[in-house]
Design brief:
The complex is a heterodimer of chains A (254) and B (334).
Chain A (H helix, E strand, L loop, with lengths): L4 E10 L2 E11 L4 E5 L6 H9 L6 E6 L2 E2 L5 H6 L2 E3 L12 H12 L14 H13 L15 H14 L4 E5 L10 H9 L6 E5 L3 H7 L2 E6 L2 E6 L1 H4 L3 H8 L10
Parallel strand pairs in A: 3-8, 3-9, 6-7, 7-8
Antiparallel strand pairs in A: 1-2, 1-4, 4-5, 9-10
Helix pairs in contact in A: 3-4, 3-5, 4-5, 5-6
Chain B lengths: L17 H22 L4 H22 L9 H18 L4 H23 L4 H21 L1 H4 L24 H23 L1 H11 L1 H6 L4 H27 L9 H14 L4 H21 L4 H15 L3 H16 L2
Classes of the chains: A alpha/beta (254), B mainly alpha (334).
């Protein structure tokens, strides 16, 4: 299948410090990729470059065949590149129904309407019900977000992202901060993501990575040092070195 | 509960009918308006002034209360509306009060757009400073363009025709008062629609987290600029009402003081609620009028004391705190 999302020779430096160095990757619809790497590997910078929140020093980002390197973050979202946040960013005073309703309306270009309420728009409400139902949030549809549990807030993040009908979904540690008892629900939600959606998940929890990803990319010091099957990642010498530092290879250091 | 096939009912509906609250709001304003007319027939000028300032405070609530943009320059739109309505009458002989009001609405909206373009380039404290700079520029412009505005002498020669050719603006201010009540009711109903609309929801989102809104593919600045235009139009209506009812426009209409007072009234009543804006205006202006007559030497002290008391003990404002109290009690009795 042709690539829906491509990153070519992406580079970014802050002063003399190269934080992302010549990163290239390509994703096809239906891909389930995990991006991992030790602290300071440049994962956050990579996400910011890809989403358009940070301009690259050089390189290109392509979305559905279109070069979007010069298009801002909002434009990229509208073209189908949607992200979720490592720490949930939800509107505390709004309800799950309002979150999903707003996302649906925004996607359809109707979020600027000055009259009416989405509660009275059957086609919007049908979609809102369906998504909240799917993620097990229907009961909480009209509660304020501040009143619902963190695990459920994480699920709502996913619902909001899906309401935007993305082609490519970037999940930034979707299970971070969720108590162990609730991670099952989130894993189920991840397993139920639309099959044609390309998903790139940034994650620390290796158990989750192995259950979710069909392909793993390891980023260290701004460079891709591994791109392959989950089964091979722990065997890779460079990956071990990156995670364990120079201790493992102390004898090789001149 | 019945299980309906209709998808709309699967989720149920949030508590509290909004339409009923709209009707109640209209009824409450009408009752207050009637009470004012009956209780203070000799003081309709003050009541009409309260109505025009209420429109300014409602306008301020749209950007400050609903969108989270703090500004000390909102009287720029009120003044623009007042001068536009006044100049139409005094210089162009357009004396139809409805056309004058329309002029005020347009002028307020244009001023709103202009200020949005400048103010939305900054955030937080620099944005607040920009708003102050803008109100001084507007004030100075009106001062310098004295052939149009009358400068510091004020703009006079405003002579509105009878409303619909029937109701003349009388010396006692009856017509002006009812004209003002009608404008406020119309503005209130329209704004209730706006704050509940998808756009209103978008603005609430922007207030909480503009970055999240961007990640949903919406531009916070575009939405805020739109809200500024709406807010400018509402404040301009208030300005036009003031010009029509008093038949003069003074430089005060465009002043920093007027802007700051509007913010004080909004905080007093409670931000982020149309009722809060109305309650704050009413309480502040009646308090000001009463205390300044009772004790002309210390009235500002008392206004200050009231404000401190509200901010410390009822930080959601008088209306906001009362509403929260009744909501809690309602939930406890459920």
């Amino acid at each position: 299948m042709s690539a829906v999302f491509e990153v070519a020779n992406l580079k970014r430096s802050f002063g003399g410090l190269v934080v992302t160095n010549d990163v290239s990757l390509s994703m096809a619809p239906g891909d389930r990729i995990a991006l991992i790497g030790p602290n300071g590997a440049g994962k956050t910078t990579f996400v910011n470059l890809v989403t358009g929140n940070l301009p690259p020093s050089s390189g290109e980002v392509r979305l559905g065949g279109e070069t979007v390197t010069r298009i801002d973050a909002i434009g990229r979202v509208r073209r189908g590149l949607v992200r979720s946040f490592q720490v949930t960013r939800l509107f505390q005073d709004m309800t799950p129904a309002e979150h999903v309703g707003l996302a649906v309306l925004q996607r359809d270009g109707r979020a600027g309407r000055l009259f009416g309420s989405f509660l009275n728009m059957p086609e919007v409400m049908a979609e809102v019900s369906e998504l909240l139902e799917k993620l097990g949030l229907a009961e909480l549809a009209h509660r304020k977000v501040r009143e619902i549990a963190y695990g459920q807030q994480r699920l709502l993040e996913i619902a909001v992202a899906l309401a935007l009908k993305p082609k490519v979904l970037l999940l930034d540690e979707p299970a971070a901060g969720v108590p162990q008892s609730d991670t099952g629900r989130i894993e189920q939600a991840l397993a139920d993501l639309p099959p044609d959606l390309a998903v790139l998940m940034i994650e620390h929890d290796m158990d989750l990575v192995f259950r979710f990803a069909k392909r793993v990319i390891v980023l260290a010091a701004g460079t891709i040092i591994f791109d392959g099957l989950p089964a091979d990642v722990t065997k890779d010498a460079r990956v071990r070195e990156a995670y364990l530092g120079n201790y493992a290879n102390a004898s090789h250091v001149a | 509960m019945t299980l309906a096939v209709n998808t709309q009912t699967i989720l149920g509906r949030p508590r509290g009918g909004s339409f009923r609250r709209d009707l109640m709001g209209v009824a409450v304003i009408a009752v207050f308006a009637a009470a004012g007319y009956i209780l203070f027939p000799d003081n309709l000028a003050l009541l009409t002034r309260i109505l025009s300032v209420a429109l300014l405070v409602l306008a301020l609530d749209l950007v400050t209360g609903y969108c989270g943009v703090a500004t000390l320059g909102h009287a720029a739109f009120f003044g623009s509306g007042a001068y536009a309505a006044g100049i139409l009458s005094a210089h162009y002989g357009i004396n139809d009060p409805l056309l004058m009001t329309l002029g005020g609405i347009v002028a307020g909206a244009v001023a709103g757009l202009l200020c949005a373009v400048i103010m939305l380039r900054a955030h937080g404290l620099p944005q607040l400073v920009l708003s102050i700079a803008l109100i001084y520029l507007f004030h100075e412009l009106a001062n310098k363009a004295s052939s149009w505005t009358g400068g510091s002498d004020g703009l006079s020669g405003i002579m509105p025709d009878p409303v619909f050719g029937l109701y003349e603006f009388d010396l006692f201010g009856h017509t002006a008062y009812f004209f003002g009540v009608a404008l406020l009711l119309i503005a209130f109903v329209l704004l209730r629609l706006v704050v509940r609309s998808p756009f209103g929801m978008l603005c609430r989102g922007i207030k909480e987290d503009p970055l999240r809104i961007r990640a949903m593919g919406a531009s916070p600045n575009a939405a805020l600029a739109k809200m500024y235009v709406i807010s400018g139009a509402v404040a301009g209506t208030g300005g036009a009402l003031s010009a029509i009812s008093t038949q003069v426009v003074a430089l005060d209409a465009l002043s920093f003081t007027q802007s700051a007072e509007a913010l004080v009234m909004l905080v007093l009543g409670g931000t982020g609620s149309l009722f809060g804006a109305l309650a704050g205006t009413l309480i502040f202006m009646l308090f000001e009028d009463y205390v300044s007559a009772a004790n002309p030497f210390h009235w500002l002290t008392m206004v200050g004391a009231l404000l401190i008391a509200v901010v410390l003990f009822a930080p959601k404002g008088i209306y906001g705190t009362a509403a929260a109290y009744f909501t809690r009690r309602g939930e406890a009795n459920r």
